[in-house]
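Just wondering, does anyone understand what follows?

——
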Amino acid sequence: ASLDSRKVRKLLRPYGVSLFALNLDLSWDMNRWSRLCGLVLLLSHALMHSANAGFCTPTPGSCWPSRSTFSAWLATLSSTTRVYTPDTTPEFFLSEATSMNLLKSNFPGLIVVPGTEADLRSAMYFASKNRIRVVARCSGHDFNGRSNGRGVMLIKTELLNWTLYDDKTQAISFGSGAMHADIYSALVPYNRVYIGGQSKTVCPAGCLAGGCHGLMSRQYGLGIDSILEIRFALFNGTVITLNRTRNADLFHAYLGAGQNSFGVALSFKAQTYPAPPAILMFDALFDATADNAPGNLLSNFFLNATWFNDMPRELAGNINYEFGSVKVKFVYTGTDYDGTFQKLQPLLESPFTRHVTDPEVFPNMYEVALNLYPPVTDIWARKFITSGFLPQDQEVLDTISSIIVVLFGAQWFDPHEDRDRVAGMEPYLSGLYSLAPTSYSNEFTSWGTYNNVSDWKTRFFSNYDSLLAVKKKYDPCNLMTAKFAVGSDQPTAICSCAPKG
């Protein structure tokens, strides 16, 4: 509340937001802030760039459907489905537009939250008929902004949340709105485990689009390796089944390169595996370098392929590097506790080690997911720094950040600290990419050295040309869209995308 309104107006001036010439009172009630948000959103829509040429966007002179056309379509939807537009719910729009990346303000044209699969198909049909581009998301954890799009129909699948376990085949089916916690919880009574991500609030639908690495991936592979079948909605609402024999090209393309490129996944069927009898977890704090040790912690151990491959396949975890300190969370799903600790002794007794916590034991993967991350972290306050595709103009970053802080924030964060965090990790990127140049598709890399515009296609395991062929086959009018996704650099469609009938 200590913000100076003159400073705010100065920061916003590059955007030509003349409404801030008014006296700005930070004690405004929510109704006044909502009206302000609406005006900002309308301005954002008016400034949409030409990337959507040939498609309909909510801009003056565009082919955006009329209010009566929208009303007629809305009347066909079930009562469980929610549809939001910026003129009626501006505050909801602003919060949705900044999911996971506060500085990528790609405001959608409308937001649809289908309550049924039929309504999701109807939304796809409506979008294709009216040449509206589509972005789908569940939890929206793509840090590079591919969970949203400027002027698109944003389809949120969060209500399509269900699970069904088949005891005969030991496979689990789940809707595209299910989160990892939902699936892990559903499997506890059957003493089975699904191979997915470790965060309880991440949806497999998006995780699988990037491969989906989890705590048991060293034993069973990536999450995509256990997927048996996908029910999939194409750009016009047509539903097809994907597996290793039916529409196999799209099945393999979605699993690893599916970030809003080909259509919308409706549900998945996945193989499960015997759950470990117990899961052990402990933390260790290290110095990245030590005066009495050659090399450094990462090169000697975690980025040393010989050392790491000698560790048991049941050992996994997370590494958090910040300002010369390295915090590692170890997770062990095997039963040879003594043997595993013996193998870890050269690391845990090295000069790099500061502190090692006592192990905690969890009965299943669901409890691990609930306890792996604290309920609140400063990651979310700085979530804009995790993208390597952000503009490198710091004034632009500060300005957009100011908008978010003014509208919803409680404190300022120094952007220079974020730069320092990024700079602290960059020396290790070349080592990481020498081991796996096609890294996990939504991870932060740098401010423009590795994940820059010129090399983004190399992140598709040398298969970009074949993936583009799949894109053109199943989404011929390029209605599905995402930044730095398959087909994102293709000419925008001007063909008639409307389904027949």
In short: The domain at 279-363 is CATH 3.30.70.260 (Alpha-Beta Plaits). The longest strand covers residues 279-287. The chain has a mean pLDDT of 78.
